[in-house]
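Q: what does this look like with flavin-adenine dinucleotide bound?
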Amino acid sequence: MNYDVIIIGAGPGGIFSAYELLHKTQGLRIAVFELGNPLEKRHCPIDGVRVKNCIHCPTCAIMNGFGGAGAFSDGKYNITNQFGGTLHQHIGKTEALELMAYVDKINLENGGAGTKLYSTANTAIKTLCLQNKLHLLDASVRHLGTDKNYVVLENLYRLMKDRVDFYFNTPVETVRQSENGYTVTTKRGEFFAKYCIISVGRSGSKWMERVSHEMKIPTLSNRVDIGVRVELPAAIFAHLTDELYESKIVYRTEKCQDLVRTFCMNPHGAVVSENTNGIVTVNGHSYEDPEKHTENTNFALLVAKHFSHPFTDSTGYAESIARLSNMLGGGVMVQRFGDLIRGQRSTPSRIAESFTTPTLAATPGDLSLVIPKRILDGIIEMIYALDKIAPGTANDDTLLYGVEVKFYNMEVELDEKLETLYPNLFVIGDGSGVTHSLSHASASGVHVARTIASRLNTAD
Ligand SMILES: Cc1cc2nc3c(=O)[nH]c(=O)nc-3n(C[C@H](O)[C@H](O)[C@H](O)COP(=O)(O)OP(=O)(O)OC[C@H]3O[C@@H](n4cnc5c(N)ncnc54)[C@H](O)[C@@H]3O)c2cc1C
């Protein structure tokens, strides 16, 4: 079957490629292949009662399907070049910011109206951080919330479904260059298009590695972030979250000079588990709707690990650590900060006695048996540093869930158009290793769609 453009993956990258192609062209035949379900059929079986832990579904409802990994995310849409990816290194800082603002506008037009845009500009919190050896990164952040984010996705799908052929439950198996285009194979047969956009996200990392290898597309892989998710009473961080919603704060450890940072802050949110390639790690989200708010705030504390020659398998390293926590805890493990400091494991009774009620039913355990000492020391140092700007962070009852891992896909060699060495074969979003966020992934989709549209219009 022939198309003009084939898009592999219906996460934010794929969705915004399709959206912008429809916006900039007429009568284009577009196919989107997605290994997961349509949005309304995405249901994670974990209900905290009958199913408490990940049961390793064939496709993970949290990670796969229309909306991609972002579908049930907190919908924190960060407009910044300081984190969330390195898109600006390819397309330039100004264009990257313009595209993120453009996607934000589309989100608002499609159900996100009324949501708040927070900003770090002129905040006194920056000074408070600096006085305590902490560094607050600059950003504007739109908090769509898990609920509104879902509505935006529903509306975008409705807008596109009659003009784009969506193939759900249809993983693309192989991609190969054929005469004047690309052929992809799926269980429904072979499909051809002149233009091919690969947007397979984090869950498609192994697939992307294989395809890059088969097509001899150069890649680079040397980074992974490892840490824990911290959960504490929302009141402790309220002065930060009320003003900024999400604060990205970086700390350099005194002991090893490692960088530890806060990541994915969810005021009044919930901690969740996530399954990537069969490995269960921890994450978090929160709702915009006050009725769904919890008493707690959660955020990750991550330490970046860069490897150099001869080691290249940074993902394998982090997976081994996550596997260890899965082995000991059967999934995600939780420990009180006080127990960690005293060198004792948390037990179900210690967690039950805690003044902070966990929002995820994780297995009480000992994170020091899982996380490498250097990384754990860095996290402990940062908790004490955060305690100075948010007193109470280092309380005994602060909960630490492990392991949170931020896998960075190996970076695919791409030019400023996000095009591979093969003409008209583009790789975007988290699957390219260039982006790590909703905003950067979406913006990369728009960027590539505009390139294709201009090539098509020139050819006309
Ligand atoms: C719980 C959670 C919360 C998050 N919260 C935030 C947040 O608040 N803010 C933020 O900026 N980021 C957040 N993120 C990260 C964000 O969701 C991702 O950065 C973003 O979704 C990346 O978009 P993408 O399109 O590149 O990839 P993805 O969203 O991962 O989409 C890729 C899609 O490709 C499909 N796919 C994979 N392989 C194939 C194949 N072979 N054939 C067909 N389809 C395939 C997958 O099923 C998936 O649906 C969160 C992630 C998670 C898991």
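The mean pLDDT is 94. The longest helix spans residues 438-459.
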